[in-house]
Amino acid sequence: MADSKALYQEVILDHNRKPRNYGALADANHKAEGHNPLCGDHITMALRLDDDRVGAIAFEGESCAICKASASMLTTNVKGKTRDEAEVLIREFRDMATGKLDVATEPHHLGRLTVFGGVRDLPTRVKCAILPWHTLHAALNAAGSASTESEQDPMHAPIGDA
Amino acid sequence: MSSLPTKRAAPGALDVASIRADFPILDLKVSGKPLVYLDNAASSQMPQPVIDRLVRYQKEQHANIHRGVHYLSETATAEFEAARKKLAAFVNAREEREVIFTSGTTESINLVMHGYGRKFIGAGDEIILTTLEHHSNIVPWQMLAEEKGAKIRVVPISDAGELRVDEYEKLFNERTKFVGLSHVSNALGTVNPVKGMVAFAHARGVPVLLDGAQAAPHLTVDVQDLDCDFYAFSGHKLCGPTGIGMLYGKAAQLERMQPFKGGGDMILSVTFEKTTYNTIPHKFEAGTPPIAAAIGLGAAIDYLTNIGMDAIAAHELELLDYATAQVNKLPGVRILGTAEHKAAVLSFVMDGVHPHDVGTLLNEDGIAVRTGHHCAQPVMQRFKVPATSRASFAFYNTMAEVDALVAGIRNVQKVFA
């Protein structure tokens, strides 16, 4: 049985109430929009790559709490990471959310992002949690836009291979 | 006390406890809590008599219909046609042949689009739809408009979610060829004044299809009184199985339409030179239909008719009025759809909480509501929201379940405070 109470933990509610790095990023050199047409979630992820490292990152948009908290925690976790390190986090987050990575028994780099592990029991909410990461992947690869319903959807096709 | 005995309960006097005992699924526990099923507009639950009927058909009566001369085929055919008769009586059709079995409302509308629209609607013609339509009464007509070069005109709605009938009347011109109109809005619950709208269209020689998916479960439907050309609904919203529904069509309209699907059962004779189509309704029923589902729907109609649609409507309106009053007391919660005439649907948005979060947290309390755009994105755009949470009631719901919903909404507010 899904335990959504475990999903709506204080850390997630806090990031939803006070999202970190929320707003526009004036000197962004990578940007993408993410959209989930099924629920109307819409976020923009903007970042500045300094050489190969995420020097600054911000997001904005309208979404549910799971998506917004996921985006907020994404920004705090990805800032300062190299592009490759960010792609590892994207892949591991996706695998955790879809149940392919058991964060309790297998090695990973997700840290506090494991609070989102509960979405694997809520299939309709997996896309909410993944959308920011999908959008980050699109931004890093300058794809311009991402959709949970496109062929690049992590639910349909693997990401991180580009 | 009335001294006259009656088989039916007086309006508002449903014995809900004994009705609930007919629905095994209502005993379910979800998240450790008693299930509070308030997603009836998406699909209703099935009572034991309908489940039993499906089982009896499969155990004792199944064979293909309209074909064999053997006992089982004749039995299955008789039961299938008896179900058609029940549906015809349920909507007060003049004749049984005006009832076509389809897979549901969506297929019914597509049948009319292909059978009527592709034959009689051409370049420059106009089709009138409304902002309240479910996507299934929008997309088929858009496909037709694209194919034929026809045009879609849309009736706007008021802030209360009521159709602007004055604007509807202004949309008519000499190119108007068809009207598609929901009887009850699935997203807001608005009951539309369809009878007058049908009469207005008919005065201009324009046929009307009514999408009754959200009306047939909640109201007494009389197609002769409404005088609509077509009426569509789905079985699974009426305590019946999925995969079955019906299209009512006036015989004269059905006769002049072209077939929708080709195949067995819809023909009288076939040679490679020429095929002669069967008479209605069989002209529109190619292939082996879902026989068990049709018979199950017939049993569901019996079940509902035995309770009485007026009693059902009265109980559901009590639930809706009570829920509306309780939810209106909650600060930060806004009901979308405040039409004077509504049926069984409470759509709402909460300040600072996305509907999907509402739905997930209500589920934790065992409460099933629908969250999303309800396949009615034009309605969402009209109210400038991406989605809503929607509680929709059936006759087996209780005031205590409304209280559970209200407590659940308060809990969501507490979590997000």
Task: Give a written overview of the molecule.
- The complex is a heterodimer of chains A (162) and B (417).
- Chain A is of the alpha+beta class and 162 residues long.
- Chain A has a single domain, classed as Sufe protein. Chain: A (Alpha-Beta Complex), CATH 3.90.1010.10.
- Helix content of chain A is 36%, strand content 19%.
- A four-stranded mixed sheet of chain A has the order 3-2-1-4, with helices on one face.
- In chain A, helix 2 packs across helix 3 and helix 4 packs antiparallel against helix 5.
- The radius of gyration of chain A is 14 Å and the shape is globular.
- Chain A starts with a helix and ends in a 15-residue tail after the last strand.
- The C terminus of chain A is likely disordered.
- Chain B has 417 residues and is α/β, with parallel strands linked by helices.
- Chain B has two domains: 132 residues, Aspartate Aminotransferase, domain 1; 256 residues, Type I PLP-dependent aspartate aminotransferase-like (Major domain) (Aspartate Aminotransferase, domain 2, 3-Layer(aba) Sandwich).
- Chain B is built from 14 helices and 17 strands.
- Chain B has a seven-stranded mixed sheet with strand order 4-10-9-8-7-5-6, sandwiched between helices. Chain B has a four-stranded antiparallel sheet with strand order 13-14-17-16, covered by helices on one side. Chain B has a two-stranded antiparallel ribbon with strand order 1-2.
- The longest helix of chain B is centred in the N-terminal third of the chain and has 20 residues.
- The N terminus of chain B is likely disordered.
- Classes of the chains: A alpha+beta (162), B alpha/beta (417).
